[in-house]
Design goal:
Blueprint: H1 2-35, H2 43-46, E1 53-59, H3 69-86, E2 90-96, H4 98-103, E3 111-115, H5 124-139, E4 145-155, E5 158-167, H6 171-174, H7 189-263
Parallel strand pairs: 1-2, 1-4, 2-3
Antiparallel strand pairs: 4-5
Helix pairs in contact: 1-7, 5-7
Length: 264
């Protein structure tokens, strides 16, 4: 019941953030299409032109008791890391959630940062703080691409492991969500993108945190419901075994009494 109440609040927060995240992505897509081919575009849009150093932002929960929720993300992260390293490229990690930080401790040498204790109240300021840490690492010239790995909340019984590219922005994949109607912008697309792209980065990260949080409570509620059912079945089996054992002892005592009486 506690998990169900938390799930309701987390799901409402995730669903409320979706329209804004989608609208932000559509606007950035239109701006990027209009600015395509121009010089001095922001690095968040175009990337560095290389993919030698790839940052993977892994989002899990702080706590367990939620079935395979955290382990599915960690397995996907390890597979992604192995694939990157097999290609001869370097990987860096930023972990959100205690489970990601602890279970990926073998990659501590490439972990540029981590954040925990966000489950109680996730705010846009938290996402901005994470984004600023990542931007600071980018300013050092050590990141070529950025991707996000989290559980997308589909329903109470379904959370989908999702891989989302954040830099360079995948304009072609988002083009279908845009609008073909032409726009004229003032100031220029480059100036708007320079201001909007960091906000879009933080917004997509904020939306992912909310989706992941809702998915965690959904998975936790299912795990607790299954645990309750299993406990009930175990109680029934143990009660039946107890009653059978008790009946056998009573029968044995009666046989002993009757045998004694007959002997006398």
């Amino acid at each position: 019941m506690v998990a169900a109440a938390k799930l309701r609040r987390a799901r409402e927060a995730a669903e409320a953030a979706r329209p804004y995240a989608v609208a932000m992505e559509q606007m950035v897509t239109r701006l990027a299409a209009g600015a395509e081919g121009q010089a001095n575009l922001p690095v968040l849009l175009t990337g560095t032109g290389k993919d030698a150093v790839q940052l993977l932002v892994v989002v899990t929960a702080d706590r367990g008791l939620a079935g395979a929720f955290n382990s599915s993300i960690v397995r996907a992260a390890r597979k992604r890391i192995r694939d990157i390293q097999t290609e001869g490229k370097q990987v860096k990690l930023y972990c959100v959630g205690r489970k990601a930080r602890d279970w990926l401790a073998e990659y501590k040498s490439v972990m540029i940062g981590s954040r925990t204790d966000l489950a109680k109240k996730i705010t846009y300021a938290d996402a901005e703080a994470i984004a600023h840490e990542i931007f600071a690492e980018m300013d050092k010239g050590g990141i070529d691409t950025i991707a996000l790995l989290f559980n997308h909340f589909k329903s109470v019984i379904s959370q989908v492991v999702t891989f989302q590219q954040l830099m360079p922005l995948n304009v072609e994949a988002s083009a279908g969500a845009g609008v073909d109607q032409p726009y004229e912008y003032e100031p220029s697309e480059e100036e708007i993108l320079a201001d909007l792209l960091p906000r879009n980065f933080a917004m997509q990260l904020f939306s992912a945190l909310l989706e992941n949080n809702a998915g965690f409570y959904g998975s936790q509620m299912n795990a607790m419901e299954n645990a309750t059912k299993n406990a009930g079945e175990m109680i029934k089996k143990l009660t039946l075994k107890y009653n059978r054992t008790r009946q056998a002892n009573i029968t044995k005592e009666l046989i002993e009494i009757i045998s004694g009486a007959e002997a006398i």
